[in-house]
Specification:
Layout lengths: L1 E3 L1 H11 L13 H11 L1 E3 L9 H10 L4 H10 L3 E5 L3 E5 L3 H4 L9 H9 L1 H14 L26 H11 L3 E7 L2 E6 L15 H16 L1 E3 H5 L10 H10 L3 E6 L3 E7 H4 L11 E3 L10 H8 L20 E6 L2 E11 L4 E9 L8 H16 L4 E4 L12
Parallel strand pairs: 1-8, 13-14
Antiparallel strand pairs: 2-4, 3-4, 5-6, 7-9, 8-9, 10-11, 11-12, 12-13
Helix pairs in contact: 2-4, 9-11
Length: about 400
């Protein structure tokens, strides 16, 4: 069996996720952004925009400053990407349509399915409106439901049109044609895809085989529980059998990771990279929703970094802050920064910088963080960076 250190596994993941080596000196072309999405396989969507929306921050971490219009062109003009559910609501690749088609079905939970089945006329009304007049905002579609939507938790209570649109989206019948800010403009899903979108119909086993390979490539190496929650989260019903098949065919290899168990897997094509010493470190700020650390249990086991979102935690109970970006330095997560963009003063505000225990000493790291904050500020059109709190040893780097 192959053996590797946790450091080797971290470095493989960081390389595969395009977070190693120096940043390019020029702004990326749209196809370079697309190539990064292929490496990650999805970009999580999140409405939080304290500094920038998640999918933009993920790309910034890997490319530096880029033209947001280039990404919008990829998604909403070329249709190389479309919005769908991956490990969360995400931008996914149109070329992966056969994988995502596996989940495009009516709701399966009894309460949702009963409402769906009972509102066939309402569904047809929405689809007809989109067919004849789309793209449309939800508020531009008349509510003709016979029974209004009622949510058990109250979050979506009364949002009948929006809730049915969400169900039609998951079922692959409606899609997001574009966005106006955070407002979604809905259309028929077929019109949200490129004309050459693959029409292949794969069996559930074929879907899982492809998804496992994509997930493993993005993760570098992983245990079965890591794969289950990555890329197409919880869509691996035959995972043990699929792993056995891929191993028998030489596509993947079993791996023992020192101190973390002997039940890991790595792509055969990546196995040699576990012993490759040519790792070029980078210091970079990561979105709190970044693909590298979206599996929090894996992040804690592999990086020794406890990562939890405190956006919905009452202010008095927050330990780190509201919108906290982990700091990657080489192959370690060494700190975090609570950031906000103050648009009234054109300032990027670091409410607090926190260092992890046993992090590197000296001023190299805080100076590198200062450079990253300045780069981020320029990209967001902020004219200055304001650091309000930092470890005492780091303060000279921010003066």
């Amino acid at each position: 069996m192959l053996r590797a250190t946790p450091q080797a596994v971290r470095r493989l993941a960081i390389r595969n996720q395009r977070l190693a080596g120096p940043l390019p000196r020029r702004r990326p072309e749209p196809d370079e952004l697309l190539d990064t999405v292929r490496a990650l396989r999805c970009l999580q969507l999140d409405p939080t925009a304290v500094v920038a929306r998640n999918h933009l921050l993920v790309l910034f971490s890997r490319h530096g400053a880029f033209d947001e219009r280039a990404f919008e062109q990829l998604a909403y003009e070329r249709r190389a990407l479309f919005e769908y559910w991956a490990h969360e609501a995400s931008f996914v690749l149109s070329e992966d349509l056969p994988i995502h088609r596996f989940a495009m079905r009516p709701p399966r939970s009894p309460g949702h399915r009963a409402w769906w089945d009972g509102e066939a006329g309402f569904r047809e009304h929405i689809l007809a409106r989109l067919r004849d007049h789309g793209p449309l905002r939800a508020r531009e579609i008349e509510d003709r439901a016979t029974v209004g939507w009622e949510s058990t938790g109250g979050w979506t209570h009364g949002r009948t049109v929006a809730r049915m649109l969400d169900m039609l989206w998951v079922a692959g019948q409606a899609g997001i044609a574009r966005r106006d800010g955070t407002q979604r403009l809905w259309d028929l899903m077929e019109r949200c895809l490129p004309p050459d979108a693959p029409q292949d119909e794969w069996s559930p086993r074929e879907v899982q085989r492809h998804a496992v390979v994509h997930a493993l490539r993005a993760l570098g190496a992983a245990r079965a529980p890591h794969i289950r929650v990555h890329f197409t989260r919880f869509r691996y019903p035959d995972l043990p059998a699929v792993l056995a098949e891929l191993h028998a065919e030489g596509v993947i290899e079993p791996l023992a990771v020192d101190g973390l168990g002997d039940d890991w897997w790595v792509l055969a094509e990546d196995a040699e990279r576990l012993t490759d010493d040519d790792f070029k470190p980078r210091t970079v700020l990561l979105s709190p929703f970044d693909n590298l650390l979206c599996d929090r249990a894996r992040t804690e086991a592999l990086f020794g970094f406890h990562h939890r979102l405190e956006i919905y935690t009452p202010r008095a109970k927050r330990r780190w802050g509201y919108f906290v970006l982990p700091i990657l330095d080489g192959d370690r997560l060494v700190g975090r920064v609570d950031l906000a963009l103050d648009r009234t003063r054109d300032a990027l505000v670091a409410h607090a910088l926190h260092a992890e225990p046993r992090g590197p000493r000296g001023l190299r790291l805080p100076k590198a963080i200062a450079r990253e904050l300045e780069r981020l500020a320029r990209w967001r059109n902020a004219t200055n960076v304001e650091v309000r709190a930092a470890p005492t040893a780091w303060l000279p780097a921010f003066s």
